[in-house]
Each structure stands twice: as C-alpha cells, then as structure tokens.
Amino acid sequence: MRVLVTGGGGFIGSHVSEALLRQGHQVRIVDRAPATRVDGCELIEADLNDSGVADAAVAGVDAVSHHAARVGMGVDFSDAPGYVTDNDLATARLLAALTAQRFGGRLVLASSMVVYGEGRYRCGRHGVVTPVPRSRDDLDHRRFEPRCPRCSAPLEWALVPEDAPLQPRSVYAASKVAQEHLCSLWAREAGASVVALRYHNVYGPRLPLDTPYAGVAAIFRSALRRGEAPQVFEDGRQTRDFVHVADIARANLAALAVSAEAGSARPVNVCSGRPVTVGEVADAIADAFGSDAPRPVLTGRYRLDDVRHVVASPDLARSWLGVEAQIPFRAGLAELARGEDGLSTTL
After folding, report:
1. How confident is the model at residue 345, as a pLDDT?
2. Across 72-81, 85-94, 187-196, 318-327, least confident range
3. How far apart (Å, rounded) are the C-alpha atoms in residues 112 and 71?
C-alpha cells in the first residue's frame, strides 16, 4: 500500500512513517520543514497550502495519515491566523485534492484530546454534569477543583468517552474540532472513511523542547537541563493521560487497516486510561535526572484556560482497533534519563 503521511518529518509523523516502512508499505511524506529525514520515504518538502502541493502529494496514494499541523496551546490570540491556516486551511486543501483524485480510501486524522476541553465529571447528587467554568477569583484563592453547576459541590473526574461533548478551550483546540468536522463532511460526500485519532499526552523521542508551544513535560525537562527546578502550576494535582509515541504509531497502523463503512467518520481516543498528576510528572522527570537534580516547586500560578482533569477511556481503541498502551509511563521516562530527546503533552 502507498501511504501519504503529511507532517511525516515531525515528532509523531516520523514514527508513523517508520512503522509503515517496517510493515512493507511505500511511504510518501509531505512536510514543509522536516525535523527528521526518514530513510526509504519519498519526500515532498513543501507546504500543503502552496499551489499544487496537495494535488501532487495525493496522486496515486491508497491511504492518508494526516499529521501536518501547528500544535501546542499557543501564546495568545494573535496566533489564531497561524493555527487556522496550518490546521484548517491545509486540511481543506488536502481534502479538495483527494476529491479531485476521486479518492475513496482511508484517511486517518491526527486529532487531539483538547477537543474535549475539561474532562468528564460526576456530582454525588446530580450525576454527570458540565462543571462551572473556573473563575479568576476561584483560582486566585486556590480553589482549583471544578464545581457542580447545580449545587456547587466539588466534582469527581471520570474517564472521557468519545461521545463526550466537544468544548474547545483554545484556538488550537477549536482548529482540531474544525479538522474533525471537515473530514467527517468530506467522508460522507466522497464515500471514503475517516478515523480521527484523539491523541492524549504524547511523549517520546524527537519532540523539539525549547519552543513557546512545548507541553508541560517538555518544559519540565528543559528546565532540568538548564539546572533549574521545574515550576509546577496550581497545586500539581491536575491530572493528564500520557501515552508513548510508539503506542501512537501502533494505533495509526491499526486505524489504517480496520474495517469501516464507506462514508463514515469515527473518533477514537488513543490514551492509557491511567491518570498521572502534573506534580507526579515533574517528580518523575526530576528523578530521571538523578538525585542531584533540582526538585520541582509548586508555584500556585495558573492559566485561566487550562483544564483540571482529562483522562480518557481506552475501551474503543481496545475493542475496535485492537490496540492499547503498552509502554508504562515510568519506563518511557527511562528514555529521558538516557538522554534521548522528547517529552510532549499533545495538546
């Protein structure tokens, strides 16, 4: 099978490209600035938004794994045009090119857990509820836990299933929701099938660390490399779901092969289903650097749009794709201790 991997020279895309090659597939990569050159792949070094690039990229392919995107939470709203251009316009150009080719195969979209916003919560009296948005007053007074909109009681988090409401809390998140919607509409019209893999906090080799868009674990690692203590926001008890990039690559191969109805688009969490607090992440990375490393510091600082708890259900990936996370978080951190680049929080 000939597979197009957009963004195939990036953090996750390069691992997916290598996994495809190991299975004997032909791989074509389109990437405007590949950080990793994957031997054995055809490379189109160009931007999907440039004239004719998408048409050339999709010619003769049997399947598409779409990873090209601007990632991270952004600095402020001035980043919005870049996210919409790199994520949504580029996706629209890719889908238009596939339409012109009368492509009716499988498209795997790299989506994200950020489409959910806050995770799922339960109130002891009122069941599953959408929490009251956290206010500056609450956060200034260290009231970090979401509260019930009906009785103001503290809530308990629960695993997030794929049918949870989409409530994006950032420009990046909104751009990922738009990508999913565009692909779903295209699948129905083209008679193709889409699997939207909602990556949770991905970590592993090759992530560039020192950028304003790096995730929390990458930021902690960079601080430790500079000999500085990781700065942990809030009280460090906010929870996330971490999954190794090798597990992400396995999920992509399964998504390309799984049986799906023509015209369908289905989202799937790619996650571990196991909570890790941000404080535990900071401690674990500091431990990986050795006993002389600076210890993490709880700052109490916050970002208003941050979510408190997002841990997902892995059930659909296990039952439909036949995959689940295999690499324990601490084992993945051993890579870090050996000096191999990369920790991300997909975001």
Report:
1. 35
2. 72-81
3. 10
pLDDT digits 0-9 by tens, 289-331: 888 999 999 999 998 878 899 999 999 999 999 999 999 887 7
Q: What are 204's two structure tokens?
A: 């592993």
Report the candidate in 249, 304, 268 with the shortest Cα–Cα distance to residue 18: 249
Single-letter residue type at 221: R
**Residue 165 in this model has a pLDDT that exceeds 50:** yes
- What is the value of pTM for the model shown? 0.92
Cα gap 323→342, rounded to integer Å: 23
% helix / strand / coil in the chain, to the nearest 5? 35, 20, 45
Counting beta carbons within 10 angstroms of the beta carbon of residue 75, is it exposed (0 to 12), middle (13 to 18) or buried (19 or more)?
Answer: exposed
pLDDT at 343: 40
Amino acid at 124: G
